[in-house]
Design brief:
Blueprint (H helix, E strand, L loop, with lengths): L13 E7 L3 H12 L4 E4 L11 E2 L9 E2 L10 H6 L6 E2 L3 E7 L9 E6 L2 H12 L3 H20 L10 H8 L2 H9 L2 H8 L3 H9 L15 H10 L9 E2 L3 H14 L3 E3 L3 E8 L2 E9 L2 E12 L3 H8 L15 E7 L12 H4 L3 E4 L3 H12 L9 E4 L1 H4 L6 H5 L3 E7 L11 H17 L20 E4 L1 H8 L33 E3 L13 H10 L3
Parallel strand pairs: 1-2, 1-12, 2-9, 6-14, 12-18
Antiparallel strand pairs: 3-4, 5-8, 6-7, 10-11, 11-12, 13-16, 13-17, 14-15, 15-16
């Protein structure tokens, strides 16, 4: 691309909106604003749009298009899909989760807790694990309460930001409010469940991308849990047909069709806000620097990146963002056989396959990582996209029974990789796969496919890798700790996207009610820009 000075090369001298970042939230904002008749320019640093919500072929010469970073959809409101006329669909997983276990006594047969496949099968699975129906009834009551809360809270995400009192009144259930909004999640888990494995399965939704103990007084685990159980008003996590890139491709198409301009290879360097006057945005391309002006600028990057663009010091009132996950993508020639012969691997891997995620195992892993050591039994969870959506595989691979696996590891904060990221990544990957192998009838490595160069089809990403590749601060997948879905004391603006500068809005995951593949911050920033 050529160097642009001022607005030369663009369609407008001054745009109604300049959007920094072509991730899914930036594209949502662009589509809404362009459909409202505004002139819109999107500046994307990378050579493609999509940010972390992309599909790529990571293995040389292999026709498998994986959701490389983010991979499941729950928080994307149907409202956004309908409003923007997106050609995008998701598929429900028939099994919610499978958690293998090995009985403590001698001669015990390997088993697993299967959640899904109908109420009768789930009830029976709980009974085999615990010896009674009490734990299953507690499970039903607990998720009945979170389901009722989800139906009331989820619609508020695309409405003006409520106050805490307003949201509490809307929930209208003091026991559930106290359980999720006021007391550490660990208390609710321990009061309602007796089995260690069941406790762990419940707790994991509070730890995805969040480094916290069950009893962390900050309630970071509660906020993470809340966003994991309210999606769509049901808490279901669905498979994006065609991979996550199908969503961002549809968003980019919708934005362009409405008249938005999207340019890649344009890295924003600095914002120059001046009260209510239009904002100058300086940027860099492969051939030089330029600038463009927008009446409003929407920033899809992290709050820390926004501070850098403004030339301001970052907000030090909260700890620096730090990711805490290991992301592994794999292509297999076949699914591995399980030690638990009572379940089909296609069921076990079709939902969320929990590994080393008992309650005590999670506590120990957090304590070890907090002390600066890699977890001795790294907890993680796996799912198989291609079982629900084989379209991500080339016809030949699908016909030969190939499958993808995506692993998400917990309690591995960025600090653990600071000394030697590559070596620590390899050690952690080996230890994580060993935990999985303990429940398999054959080593996972025996099932891996190979790329065109003869290398096994497996890649792992640490928080430091995500920081380098996507500029996620500290590798934090939510840009910073998740917020409560209500206004902070002292005010958060009408939509939760406003900044100290009237003409600059935050539309990325770090905005209020951000995080995950939701498009919510993009929608809300567009509403704020439209003065709604």
């Amino acid at each position: 691309m050529t160097t642009v000075t001022g607005s030369r090369g663009f369609a407008h001298d001054v745009y109604d909106a300049v959007i920094v970042g072509g991730g899914h939230n930036g594209l949502v904002a662009a589509a809404y604003l362009a459909r409202a008749g505004r002139s819109v320019l999107v500046l994307e640093r990378l050579g493609r749009t999509g940010g972390a919500a992309v599909s790529t072929r990571p293995f040389a010469g292999v026709d498998a298009r994986l959701s490389r970073y983010s991979y499941l959809v729950s928080l994307l409101p149907d409202k956004i899909v309908r409003d923007l006329g997106l050609r995008f669909e998701v598929r429900r997983r028939t099994v919610s989760s499978y958690t293998p276990y090995t009985p403590a006594g001698p001669g015990g047969r390997p088993g697993g807790l299967l959640v899904g496949g109908g109420e009768a099968r789930t009830r029976e699975s709980f009974a085999r694990l615990t010896g009674s129906e009490r734990e299953y009834e507690s499970w039903r009551e607990f998720y009945g309460a979170t389901g009722r809360l989800a139906r009331k809270v989820f619609p508020t995400l695309t409405e003006p930001l409520p106050t805490r009192a307003e949201l509490r009144a809307r929930v209208d259930d003091e026991d559930t409010w106290r359980m999720l909004f006021e007391e550490p999640l660990g208390r609710a888990v321990e009061e309602r469940f007796a089995d260690d494995l069941v406790r762990g399965v419940v707790l994991t939704d509070g730890l995805i991308g969040t480094f916290a103990d069950a009893h962390d007084p900050s309630l970071a685990q509660n906020r993470c849990f809340l966003y994991h159980v309210i999606g769509g008003g049901t808490g279901d996590w669905d498979v994006p047909v065609g991979g996550m890139g199908a969503l961002t491709d549809a968003l980019a198409d919708a934005a362009r069709a409405a008249g938005a301009e999207i340019v890649t290879g344009h890295e924003a360097l600095r914002l120059h806000p001046d009260g209510t006057a239009p904002v100058e945005v300086t940027f860099r391309t492969a051939t030089g620097e330029g600038s463009v002006t927008g009446r409003t600028v929407l920033v899809g990057a992290s709050p820390r990146a926004l501070a850098e663009l403004l030339g301001e010091a970052p907000d030090d009132s909260a700890p620096a963002p730090e990711g805490a996950q290991l992301k592994v993508n794999m292509l297999l020639r076949r699914l591995p056989r399980l030690r638990d012969a009572s379940v089909d691997p296609r069921e076990a891997f079709g939902g969320t396959f929990h590994i080393a995620e008992g309650y005590e195992q999670l506590r120990r892993a957090h304590a070890e990582a907090a002390a600066g050591e890699l977890p001795s039994a790294p907890p993680s969870e796996i799912y198989c996209h291609s079982l629900a959506d084989p379209s991500i595989l080339g016809p030949d691979l699908a016909a030969r029974g190939y499958q993808t696996l995506t692993l998400f590891g917990l309690h591995t904060p960025a600090r653990l990789f600071a000394q030697d990221n590559r070596q620590t990544r390899e050690v952690l990957l080996t230890a994580t796969l060993a935990q999985l192998d303990a429940h398999l009838a054959e080593p996972l490595t025996d099932c891996l496919a190979f790329d065109a160069d003869g290398r096994p089809c497996i890649e792992a990403k640490t928080p430091l890798d995500l920081e380098r590749e996507l500029r996620l601060p500290g590798g934090h997948i939510f840009h910073r700790d998740l917020s409560w879905p209500y206004a902070r004391d002292g005010g958060s603006g009408r939509w939760g996207v406003e900044t100290a500068h009237p003409t600059v809005l935050l539309c990325g995951a770090g905005a209020a009610r951000g995080g995950g593949v939701s498009g919510v911050p993009g929608h809300n920033a567009a509403m704020a820009a439209l003065g709604l």
